[in-house]
């Protein structure tokens, strides 16, 4: 075991952040070494592709390979600590690590660069540290509780936006057709009241975009724990108000206003528009999504 690996035995946020950064970075390198899921003509290139909750909810062989890699590295660096992952499951109640091997799998499958690997350290459902690595761009986002958040070592801070009508808002859509239709109606109602809406296809990166000031806010129903476990802390440590309704690991900066948005809503925004964004979402039918 290397000197660095011997130093990863603590449970403070700084130590856990270093482990998350190391594992996410190594996993990104592992993914870059795997065959592309599509050939030059855009067809699936010999890689097994299956589906989960719906025909549009895809899983590639790379998802499984990356999760196996992450689990193996965590077992070496943090032996005995339970892992809860999107593809390999696990016990959410006892998890120390929450892993999304590829957030934005559809983007990855189509050759779009907006996908990421998310590794978060948790305690009793609360995120203590996390890292989000972008294999295509090479960026590494991370945060530790009380330690701030960074991208490639540079400190992050949310925008100072105070006018919702001049704010750029990110969102995402579920995989089931009937829910996507409800989400689309909500977004259509919101669109005239904001600068514009972006849908990039990876919740972890949307949350990082709020942290970087690339988005003023983000709102989505249906994201899972592995989608936001690291990204929500990165946004919050950059100054965002964050509300995640889905347990475990509730971030509840908006209080009652956030609770009314829905049972599985994720919202992160600069403080100057967060409550107004929640109010707009409610008026646009968020509680019915």
Automatic annotation (TrEMBL):
Region Disordered: start and end of each range?
21-57
The record's InterPro entries line, in alphabetical order, gives:
IMPase, Inositol_monoP_metal-BS, Inositol_monophosphatase-like, Inositol_monophosphatase_CS
**A single GO molecular function term of this UniProt record:** hydrolase activity
Per its record, the protein catalyses: a myo-inositol phosphate + H2O = myo-inositol + phosphate
Name its co-factor(s).
Answer: Mg(2+)
Listed SUPFAM superfamilies? Carbohydrate phosphatase
Cite a single Pfam family from the UniProt record: Inositol_P
Q: What EC number is given for this enzyme?
A: 3.1.3.25
Chain intervals with Polar residues compositional bias:
47-57
Give the record's keywords alphabetically: Hydrolase, Magnesium, Metal-binding
**PANTHER family associated with the record:** INOSITOL MONOPHOSPHATASE, INOSITOL-1-MONOPHOSPHATASE-RELATED
The family assignment reads: Belongs to the inositol monophosphatase superfamily.
The protein depicted here goes by the name Inositol-1-monophosphatase
Organism encoding this protein: Pseudonocardia nematodicida
